[in-house]
Amino acid sequence: MLYELIKPYTSVSTIGMCKNAGKTTALNRLIAECAAENETAALTSVGRDGERSDVVTGTKKPEIFVYDGTLIATAAAALDLGDISREIVETTGMPTPMGEVIIARARSDGYVQLAGPSMTAQIKRLNAEFVARGARRILIDGALSRKSLAIPSVSDAAILSTGASYSRDMKKTVEDTAHAIRLMSLEKTGFDRAREASNKKFTLYSRDETSGFDSAKDAAERVRDGGIRAVRMLGGITDAVIEAFFAAGRALDEVEFICEDGSRLLFEKKNFDKLLRAGARLTALERTKIAAVTVNAFSAYGDDYDAAAFSAAVREATGGSVPVIDVMEG
Amino acid sequence: MLDTKQLSDIGFNYVLEKLEPCSPFGEELKRALKNAFYTDIELLKNEYENIRILSEAIETNRDAYLAVARALMHFKDVRHSIKRSESAALTDVELFEIKRFLMGAETLADAAKDFPAIEKLSGIRIFRLTEALDIVDPDGMRAQTFRLADSCSDELARIRRERKTVDGALRALPAGSPDRDALAARRTLIAALEENEESRLRSEMSAALSHHAERALELAESIAKLDLALAKAKLMLDHGAVLPRIVPLGESPIEFTDMLNPNTDALLRGTGQRFTPVSIEVGTGSTVITGANMGGKSVAIKTLALNTFLARVGMPVFAKSAVVPMVADIHLLSEDAEDSRRGLSSFGGEMVNFDRIITAADAEDGALVLLDEFARGTNPSEGSALVRAAVRYFEKKRSSFAVITTHFDDVACLAPTHYQVMGLRNANEEELDAALSRAGGAASHKELLARFMDYGLFRAERDMNPPRDALKICRALRISKDFLECVDDQRIR
């Protein structure tokens, strides 16, 4: 049961490696299991970018099924796409492309469409509103891939969904899934100076000095000059950023690269491996706890995997570090 | 008219920051203040009377005031939904917001009972809309949430009972059961029936509410006025401001005793100094202010602009006392960096603006025209002629309250009223010199000098020329000795 795996965490985000990876199935399973435990669940989502047009035109049917008593926070226009009998609890003043985010309580079972706010601070505020209204468990439908919010700052743990829709090549799906997990569970840094407030994109620390840069190129040049022990990077870190550090042409073997959390590392696996080969250490200010990985061997495009082999491969690639659950199994 | 940048320069934005209404209604009135010159003197006097009543009540009945402020804080702006009820069926989210507004009105009316000052206010009526509230909450449960109650119609109650039964049956079925599809289809159908019935009931509810729309909008307007008047009263108490006496044009000059500019005062306090209060009386025609460089002529004129503006938009003023006629408008001409950026020389830009101001003031009865260091950017002989002409011009017209600051000679004698900034007049030069010798660095010299400078105004003789303080100031600032010797040579020659 997924429920047993998330039981220690008040708030849980779901993340998908791609569309049709089984994220919604996993979420529905969780909701049903919370209901079976008589827990008041609260639900919202991080924006709705990829699917917004479908949602607005109504071509996409709501797929999330909730039970009487569940709290939901969703945009006004998305609220009307659901079919629950509902009670309006609060208007939040948070704007979205689909209207203001509304908090409602389901007064029957039924489908809902989630279109929540897209900023970390807003999700945090919703969490507090949910708790104040008696929510025992908060489930946040996260975005696709890792291009999401700072997961550790809005939830205590995450469930990652992966599936055959990611790639026809099962080996690639397994490798990329394992890589995503490795990034998200990056070790928390022990370098305390990196926790000082600054809004510079890059903060460089030598033994005695701290310097801030907004451009990767300038920061990389400073690294080349030597003596840098750690580089703190705020926001999303792309391939261009990492390549700028390689281009500086200095051995990175004594440098610790610190990101906000693993979900902010957006560069390709080859650059990740290259960085580690160069001797650099990668750490994060916050660590995302991955409570479970769900696998879905069915592809929306027809190239299904063998379910047992897929589960086993993901389990092996992650070295037993996280529980692997097949969401399509009963 | 003062433009946005000038309003900021004279410190109006600073005062706005200190004005803190509790509700979005009051907040909206606050945003409109900069364009809210009163045209009707009685309405303006009423506003000040309201502020006076409220400020006394805040002081004597603090707890009751706080209860009113708390009640105001919970309002959201629902005027759009209220208006929509007159033409359309409202959504449940809109009905929720209207219900909250109506419940807020009940809370406010309760709080107002313990704060009887509100009843004495003119143009403000706080009342309950219980009949309207009963429409959106027919069971009288007064919950903070909104949902059409089962009691709204027998049909709704019946549908919901059936829905519960089907939900229960679906939950009880095992996942793969063959009966599931039929039951799920039944569930979808009932959900649609419920939505239809709710939609019909919401239309009825909206139509019933629409009869109360006008009263609800009146209430929103009163809440806005009450909120803003309370915020003004609070600002007055917190910052030692006063209410001006408003008089018709022709009855009295503009009179301020010991006025302050809270913005400049706050900046000065940051460096350990205090604002020197300014007292001034300005009648129609010309008033001239002269004084030393660094002596605060510009500050005086901005402070006058700010406080006169505040008095015209119904705000407390920063002074010990004030009499303000219903001046038609306020024009301020001061050095403006914008013009030089736009390509006009500062003198050219100034003259274009001057022309605009006298044209506007000519068409108005009783505008306050403030010219700060007019014509400073051209040669002293022509500059002085221009300033003298301006003094003459406004004296002859007599329709505007003109205040002109200058350090040119032979200007003040043309005006009936002449003020001079105290400057270093009363400073003990030996003490100043000793203090300066002890201090290090140019910055501290400037600061010390500011401390010895008296920024107050005094009524000067008409034929008194501006003080010769420029060299005194140079010496005090410890300007290069070699250079000052050259200056002495020049003067001997």
In short:
The complex is a heterodimer of chains A (330) and B (493). Chain A is an alpha/beta fold and 330 residues long.
Show the helix and strand layout:
The complex is a heterodimer of chains A (330) and B (493).
Chain A: H1 2-6, E1 11-16, H2 23-36, E2 41-45, H3 52-57, E3 64-66, E4 71-75, H4 76-79, E5 86-91, E6 101-106, E7 110-112, H5 120-132, E8 137-144, H6 151-154, E9 157-163, H7 170-184, E10 202-206, E11 210-213, H8 216-224, E12 228-233, H9 239-247, E13 256-261, H10 269-277, E14 281-286, E15 290-296, H11 307-317, E16 324-326
Parallel strand pairs in A: 1-8, 1-9, 2-4, 2-8, 9-15, 12-13, 13-14, 15-16
Antiparallel strand pairs in A: 3-7, 4-6, 5-6, 10-11, 10-12
Chain B: H1 4-9, H2 12-18, H3 24-32, H4 41-60, H5 62-73, H6 79-84, H7 92-113, H8 130-136, H9 154-172, H10 180-210, H11 213-239, E1 245-247, E2 254-259, H12 262-269, E3 278-282, E4 285-290, H13 297-312, E5 321-325, E6 330-333, H14 337-342, H15 346-363, E7 368-372, H16 380-397, E8 401-406, E9 417-423, H17 429-438, H18 442-452, E10 454-459, H19 470-476, H20 481-492
Parallel strand pairs in B: 1-5, 4-8, 4-9, 6-7, 7-8
Antiparallel strand pairs in B: 2-3, 2-5, 9-10
- Per CATH, the class of the largest domain in chain B reads Alpha Beta
- At CATH level 2, the architecture of the largest domain in chain A is 3-Layer(aba) Sandwich
Number of domains of chain B: 2
Name the pair of protein chains with the most residues at their interface, and give those residue counts: A-B, 23 and 25 residues
Q: Which structural class matches the secondary elements of chain B? A: alpha/beta
Alpha plus pi helix count of chain B: 20
* Rg estimate of chain B, integer Å: 32 Å
User: Helix fraction of chain A?
Assistant: 25-40%
- Helical fraction of chain B equals 55-70%
Q: Which topology of the largest domain in chain A does CATH recognise? A: Rossmann fold
- Strand order within the widest sheet of chain A? 5-6-4-2-8-1-9-15-16
Mean pLDDT of chain B: 91
Q: Kindly, what is the distance between the CA atoms of the first and last residues of chain B, rounded to a whole number of angstroms?
A: 47 Å
Largest sheet report of chain A: 9 strands, mixed
- Taken as a percent bin, the fraction of beta residues of chain A is 25-35%
Spatial extent as radius of gyration of chain A = 21 Å
